[in-house]
Amino acid sequence: MPFIPHTEEDISVMLASIGANTIEDLFDEIPPALKNGSLQVLPGLSEMEISRLMLERAETDGRYLNFIGAGAYEHHIPAAVWQITTRGEFYSSYTPYQAEASQGTLQLLYEYQTMMASLTGMDVSNASMYDGASALAEAALMAVRSHKSSRRILMPTTVHPIYRRVVRAIVKNQGIEVVEIPYCAECGHTLVESLAPYAGQDIAALVIPQPNFFGVLEPVDALTDWAHSNNALAIGVVNPMALALLTPPGEWGSTGADIAVGEGQPLGIPLSSGGPYFGFMACKQSLVRQIPGRIIGRTTDLDGRTGFVLTLQAREQHIRRSKATSNICTNQGLMVTAATIYMSLVGPEGLRRIAAQSHANTMALVEQMETLKGVKRIFSGPLFHEAAVTLPTPTDAVLKTLKNQGILAGLNLGEHYPELGNALLVCATETKIAADLEKYVEHLRRALA
User: Fold this and answer.
1) Containing H/E element for 358?
2) Cβ atoms within 10 A of the Cβ of 353, count?
3) pLDDT digit string, tens, across residues 96-115
4) What is the distance in angstroms between the CA of the first residue and the CA of the last residue of the chain?
5) What is the DSSP-derived secondary structure letter of residue 75?
6) Domain boundary among 314, 342, 370
């Protein structure tokens, strides 16, 4: 076992220093019955044997044709992205704490911030958050700190269900009220009229998803103006890929959203058993002192040479705990590195083409699905690259049948929105070709027969 450095002598010395005779003595509180081989742990395998086992398991699983979105999306990632990201100077570098940290790391984060500020149309971007859900929770806290007089957040039910759960979990013990706003059953987005009961009340922020969980586009201009007319901040929750086609949050309404957050996974991060992810956050210049995370600045040294420094780091390691905006520590720095390289390689026009093709594929898929009896779109509102459809039979049964055919057919919307009945959320990105759509629809036809 070459990677365990402790010799028998080392172990004896350590045990003696804590008054134990054997390592087993450290676990004497565990009942003998539980240490009697009941776990049936197999003998250790060599690296080669483990590699072969994992390869065999992967081949058994096969390769699914994936039509699930719901916050994590399958996009093509150029091979160069992770070839560069996994180079030692990026792969092994740790989150910077000191202003004199690696100039290469700081420059990369500066470039990332610049790209995200441009993509969202905001003044400032941080680097970065854990994921999109926790970024939204931090934005809610940020809005309450900024507003001072209100501890109420308006949250449309069209926001990702998991995001809503995370926000509640983080703010519930801080005296912050989260009020859910219903969606229009016909169009699938939030109506400005539904906010009328809260007009004139003390509201810290209105959350505005774009696109929303159903894939439908929200009336962001009207919602943003409503928030500002009621002295509330507008928090945009956005898909960064969609921003290649849609108006950025910084340009919503008359004066733009105040904070923009979202999940950065579409920007070069693979789908890998539920992670990893990273959240992004951007805001107006007036809120920069409230933003959590780190902000990298560009400057010059005494000799006039360009350099990069940690300009703002508003967490308790650096300032008084009571003054910290967040306790966020190690963020998803490696994912930010991959996203920066991805955006650099793909470029603005590449992002636009990917987004446009994703939209076209989803529209083509839905059009073909609606040729099947009993299948139709639930909402009439315009969409990006996801759509909610209703089925004539139980959704779970359909999903199971198609999975047996190697197709991940979508997400059962009824689990989060039972009022929708047999509802399915489908997504088709630029990775799908015409044959994939035809295969999906054909197997769906058989499943519904």
Assistant:
1) helix 333-369
2) 14
3) 555 556 788 888 899 999 99
4) 57
5) -
6) 342
